[in-house]
Automatic annotation (TrEMBL):
Source species taxonomy: Bacteria, Bacillati, Bacillota, Bacilli, Bacillales
Residues in ABC transmembrane type-1 domain copies: 18-300
InterPro entries according to UniProt: AAA+_ATPase, ABC1_TM_dom, ABC1_TM_sf, ABC_transporter-like_ATP-bd, ABC_transporter-like_CS, P-loop_NTPase, Type_1_exporter
Residues that span the membrane, as ranges: 61-80, 135-155, 161-181, 252-271, 283-303
Protein known as: ABC transporter ATP-binding protein
Organism: Paenibacillus tritici
Keywords: ATP-binding, Membrane, Nucleotide-binding, Transmembrane, Transmembrane helix
Protein localization: Cell membrane
Domain ABC transporter: 342-582
Amino acid sequence: MFTKYMIFFWKDIKRELFFLIVVRLLNSISPVIQLIITKNLIDSLSIYFQTGGKERLHESFLYLFIQSSILISNNLISMFERINNSKMQIKINYNVEEKIIKKSSNIPLYNYDRGNFYDQLLRASSGQSQRVVEILNGPMLFVQYLITLMTLVGILLKFHYFTLITCLILSIPPLMLNLYLSKARYKLVKELTPLSRKVNYLLNILKSKEYAKEIRIFQLQDYFIERWRKNFQISSKIQLTFDYKSSLTQNLLNCICVVVIALNLALFVFIGPEQKLSIGEYLTISQAFITVQGILLSIALSISGSYENFIQLSDLIEFLEIPEDKDTNEESVDTIPIVRKLSVNNLSYSYEGNSQFTLKNISFCLERGQRVAIVGKNGAGKSTLVKCLLGLYKNYSGTILYGATDLKTISQKALHKHVSAIFQDFSKYNFSIIENIAVGEISKIEDLQQIKSAAKKSGASDFIEKLPMGYSTGLGSMFDKGVELSGGQWQKVALSRAYFSEAEIIVLDEPAASLDPYAEADLYQNFSDLSEDRITIMISHRLNSCVNADVILVMDNGMIIEQGSHDELIRLKGIYTEMYSLQSKNFN
Ligand SMILES: Nc1ncnc2c1ncn2[C@@H]1O[C@H](COP(=O)(O)OP(=O)(O)OP(=O)(O)O)[C@@H](O)[C@H]1O
């Protein structure tokens, strides 16, 4: 699985990685060349200072020139490497983000009902593109270190094999420590995710428009700021304690390494005269020792870094592997005939983590052209039922048939052509009115005539035509020049989506909640037009809106307890009659 994703990302940045190979090769031989030039420069200068002579002076200037040229080219290489890295980062970032948004908008809706889903989403989205780049870059960096190491090891071995053994031994404790810290850091990130989400949630409450009114009216600023402060402090305390402990251990280890290195350098001073070293050779060997030690340490860090990247990247891969609707059903169909009948048999549903069933053994059958109303107390299961009917929750038991086709076998793509819904908490897109209506059938966004006709049926055209830019007006206050609508006006725009849609099954959840009495009366009038050739299902608490419905489903405690037309249910003298009488009483 891991390889599959890595190959995908690798393909996208092949060119940049190839460039990086060239950079790594140049970087790998640069230290040894620099050392040789420095040695020659120092030896040539020391002879020149002692004996003079034009030849030595020219030689010294030549080495100085070569050394400066190497430094300049190193700078140029670093500059191109930085640009190349930015390119890689942007490409991988785009790919990772695209994969995450495609996945999160295609996985079954019930995932959004799980709290730990949001932890998973947060971890899958945090810093992952950086990790992908580091993992792809890792092997090349490793090869670079190895080549440099081989070139420098020669110098050290020429002097004494003991120096190499010291370097190797010195790199083991940092490797072990960093591997341990990588594991501990990942554990900490996992533990802190719910708390970090809480901190972000509180920040969002304090910053977003959605809560701005209530925060002011109820003067909740101090209360929420205090909650945010407490959670922030707990989270930072845990983080700081970890950082403190890991820095302390790392620094202690570094200090021990520095002492051992210093002892080795002191040893070179004693061995130097014995081996008849020139000053240049002494400096070269000391520098080679320090560089080899540094490289071995970098290798240790890159091994532990790669290990950490691998374990943290598993969160992204785990997220990308969440099954989508199309994955869960191999026999899914992409086209179905026009739906003339909707049959529900023994439908039961329970939310994850809920021991009780929210829907219990529901059965009914609806025909094309029927206007259907679903009524019942709060929490009776009305919204859950329509989410099942719309194919948003497919993990139910029992069967829902669209015509003769089992809903579970219909792909989400195919389903979209046959069902449409305007929810109680419909989305208010801060885009143009055209786009806000066209989302009902986005493939027809160019059809302005149809958009206008849908707006007329919902009653939205009256105020839209008075706006300075008409249907092109931007809505909402998120962007400049956007126009904010009233609750009822927004609802009319949302209702236009239903009139614009060509679906055969349309669900309207509390469509009149924000409408004035005139608009409400128009809605019920147009409801009949809308229902022609379709099955229209309306959830409503206003029972006078159900009088003209062909079928009323009365729900209580997850069950359909009464079913029939208004007159039939009134004759039944059951719950419906009770609720209807209660509401009517308020108008008398
Ligand atoms: N995402 C969810 N996760 C867990 N339980 C849920 C979820 N959504 C709803 N429920 C529970 O399912 C039950 C039915 O809720 P549902 O929203 O379907 O009722 P409703 O009849 O539409 O209510 P209302 O008239 O208040 O809108 C409620 O007890 C509710 O607590």
